[in-house]
Design goal:
Serine Threonine Protein Phosphatase 5, Tetratricopeptide repeat, elongated, about 0% strand, 12 helices, mainly alpha
Length: about 210
């Protein structure tokens, strides 16, 4: 990146930090050349377009950053994350696996792989990915809740209930988990407890 590139790119990043994204976009459109060789510039452009909800364009920019630096784990993760958001789950998993090949302990890549696998109803594989993420960050309640969903869908209801109770002990107003727990109880034929959960008044399930 030469001095001129550094100058406009630095100003564009300042605009992003100031929340002036429209001005930052104009600066990128005026200065970003298709032959640009800095992966940082392409990845930052992807971030801006992602934040604006223009996911297809973000995918293109992240892809360009990876073409320049195939082991750029941050761009690989962002691309995998964005592909999951637009429901391109198989592609997302492939890219997230590339990120994990570079950094096997990348918890966000592990968890997002788990979420994509749940979307594809590949629940056993999802549990493996989510467990690897939880081994690194056991207090991530979103990952815990997602593991509970995967356990429920594989018929492991008691384990799922224990997971949901762990999440509710940390966040007792998590409506999503109350609904998931209620659904699990209903599948077990425990209708009264399920109804109590729907009223957000269910007690922890005894082991």
């Amino acid at each position: 990146m030469d001095m001129e590139q550094k100058d406009w790119f630095a100003r564009a990043r300042e605009l992003v930090r100031a929340g002036r994204r429209d001005e930052a976009i104009r600066m990128f459109e005026e200065n970003l050349s298709p032959g640009e060789t800095s992966p940082d510039i392409w990845e930052t452009a992807g971030d801006i377009w992602y934040d604006l909800g223009r996911h297809d364009q973000a995918v293109g920019y992240y892809t360009k950053a990876i073409e320049i630096d195939p082991k750029r784990v941050s761009a690989l993760f962002r691309l995998g994350y964005t592909l999951r958001k637009v429901m391109r789950y198989e592609e997302s998993i492939t890219v997230l696996d590339r990120a994990l090949a570079v950094d096997p302990g990348y918890t966000y890549a592990l968890s997002n792989k788990g979420y994509a696998l749940i979307a594809l109803k590949r629940y056993d594989e999802a549990i493996v990915a989510l467990d690897l993420s939880l081994a690194i960050n056991p207090r991530d309640i979103k990952v815990l809740a997602s593991k509970g969903i995967a356990l429920r869908e594989t018929g492991r209801f008691d384990e799922a209930l224990r997971i949901f109770d762990r999440v509710l002990a940390v966040n007792p107003i998590n409506s999503f988990v109350y609904l998931a727990k209620a659904d699990t109880l209903k599948r077990m034929g425990r209708d009264q407890e399920a109804k109590a959960c729907l009223l957000h008044s269910c007690a922890p399930v005894k082991e």
